[in-house]
Amino acid sequence: MKSNSSALSTPLCGIIPPLVTPLLDRDTLDVAGLERLIEHVLDGGVHGLFILGTTGEAPSLSHRLRYELIERVCGQVKGRVPLLVGITDTCFTESVNTADKAKAAGADAAVLAPPYYFPAGQPELLEYLEHLAPELALPLFLYNMPSHVKIVFEPETVRAAARIDGVVGMKDSSGNMAYFRRIQALLADRPDFSLLMGHEELLAEAVLLGAHGGVCGGGNILPKLYVDLYDAAGSKDLKTTETLHNKVMQISTTLYHVGHYGSSYLKGLKCALSCMGICSDFLAEPFHRFRHAEREVIRRRLEALGILQKD
Predict the structure, then answer these.
(1) What single string gives the DSSP state of each residue in 233-248?
(2) Given 4, 149, 171, 243, which residue has the most CB atoms within 10 angstroms?
(3) What residue ranges define each of the domains in the chain, with the CATH number in brackets?
């Protein structure tokens, strides 16, 4: 059994953006872009960073590139904020290996969605966590992402998993507020267990109702907006919360739904960062970056949002 201790405070609270992975090609990091992106996000006052999640295209990246990303991000962040590293994999051993690399590089926690090929039943999933957590070198956050892995951490499974030593929180990206509220109710006696909202469109509601924070993709673009919304909702400033929530919804509706496919969120987010001069918009295959027509739509919408100055 490994020691999964870290300097992570519990519960982890605030805005923890899921960092995009800037790429030059299918297996090469945009190193300069990554460096600019990290500083841009940290300058927005975020409370942590999460790499190798869905927004980071982790399942499409080689293990070599994942390890390089971990080392570079840890080396640049240098403990300024807690750093969470995704270790989701179809292979138990590879999840452990990634957690070991993250711990050695200086990360603070691991994040795990259910293995996404063979469909596990809830008893099997809980047993998997009971076996995995003691093998990890870091505290573990569960990652509920049923739209991608086709398996839900059922509420009772989360409750049972919260009793496992080293399991310290959960990011919920189901988009189901009834589910989220059920988890909150089941863990009402665990104020140390962090519950984070994955859908930024639900951030305001979740924090107003007691969530500890959010993992918001738009934090790559306008990190301070999401920090300000978290602060307003946490202090029950309803007028400011409504104003800032509307701005978040503008980003969601104008930048994440250009195009016709499920990849539109990633394409829009990376395209926006490219238009802002922060990093490359190359996406790991099978996806491709927006072509000229869609890029122009994103550029014009960034101008309309006041994020870019008009030519």
Answers:
(1) HHTT-HHHHHHHHHHH
(2) 171
(3) 14-238 (3.20.20.70)
